[in-house]
# Entry
Amino acid sequence: MAKTRAQRKAEQRRRQAQAPAQRDSEARAQRRTQAPESAEVVEAELAEAGVEVPPPTREPEPAPADVPAPAPSRADVGRPASADEVGAKLSRRDRKRSEQEKRARAKESERRRAPREVAPERRRGAVLGFFASCWAELKKVQWPDRETLVQASAVTVLFIAVAAAYLGALDAVFNFLVQHLL
# Structure
């Protein structure tokens, strides 16, 4: 069934309201995933700008690999052994939910594809039949929104004004010629 103009406008407003929020979240996600500039790049940019760069400080050396990890704290007691187990539970739950959604979509698709019962045509007179068919065709029309209507009306009025000026000028010229010839 065709959507009404109000429904299309409401959808357009929803999309416009969601667009800035979506762009903001994408920008935040992109900022979070960007690699930070290295110190060498920053030093080179500062040197090009003419800023005095202090001498580099010594960075602490990383801990050797043979040092054992610290003992778990009391807060870690009762937690799963690994994050994989938590991910597996969530994925099972998500998988089950997606399967339910898929079945619901399949049912809805099946319902939409099913042939509709054809209503028997009512017998009407010629005049009533004409008006009923006119009304049915008017329901199918995609009516323009206000902006399109104003724009099309302005173009029409402008064209009529130009055509009227052109025909008026021709009429004046021919009137002048006829008056002087006779």
Q: What stands out?
A: The chain has a mean pLDDT of 79. The radius of gyration is 37 Å. Helices lie at 5-33, 39-49, 83-113, 126-140, 146-181. Residues 155 and 161 are 10 Å apart (CA to CA).
